[in-house]
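Feature request, filed as a ticket because there's no other form

It would be nice if the structure record came with a short human-readable summary line next to the tokens. Right now we just get the raw output. Example of a typical job, pasted below so the devs can see what we mean:
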Amino acid sequence: MTTHTEAEIASQPSCWRRAVADVPAGALPRQGERVAVVGCGTSWFIAMAYATLRERAGHGETDAFAASEVPDGRHYDRVLALTRSGTTTEVLELLSRTTTKTTAITADPNTPIMTAADEVVVLDYADEQSVVQTRFATTQLAMLRASLGEDLTQAIADAEEAVAAPLPDALVQAEQFSFLGTGWSVGLAQEAALKMREASRSWTEAYPAMEYRHGPISIAAPGRVTWMLGAAPGGLRAQVEETGATFFETSLDPMAELIRAQRVAVARAFAQGLNPDEPMHLTRSVILSS
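Raw output as currently delivered:
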């Protein structure tokens, strides 16, 4: 029987096609605006990726924050809030107190986010039944990348490859993972690590690739994996392989490579007799009591 998580992971290429074909006009940040992108958990990591991409594309200064950590007194032209559920406590509290123009991206149109934000983009076709977030996160990032003028044709082809490719035993059976990224893929490395923890309770860390050599490489060892999302800095592979650890890197778009990490997380969950749809101590939305 296929779990919800498996089905949602496999649907990502089709979701991305729909997202890039239907970028909403007017609701997303305009070129030149100073923007704060906020979210919690997965949404924060997607915010990190988008913020880097938006600045790199020359669209304006963009900062990413966990919704609970947005600094007071800093001026922005727009707050972009990412929330699959539309009910996340910290996001709703932030939107309730800011006087800045706000846009939210959500999967559920029947939630408080619809009135909490000035403008809302609903990606209900990418909503999920699994607690573990996969396709909504990447679909909103596909839409955001397209809004910056990116052509995602190759990324979607890469996603199809990542969905279908056999999973190496070295990944499914590894003792430990360190995910690495550079630029916008630093956020995706953090997200890959989160999926591995949520779905399979695996020992997983994540770092900017150049920072990995400043201490974290000390845990590299045989049976452990250093997994690069995007192109690795020169010399890093050799240094990791000297430790006996596996260095894993492909030429796929980092967002497509994230799909492979999601699939490995599910495979590892099954190997341990876990249900990836129901991670321990988590619910679909974190709603905090006062």
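Something like this underneath would help us a lot:
The chain has two domains: 4-147, 165-271.
Residues 141 and 174 are 29 Å apart (CA to CA).
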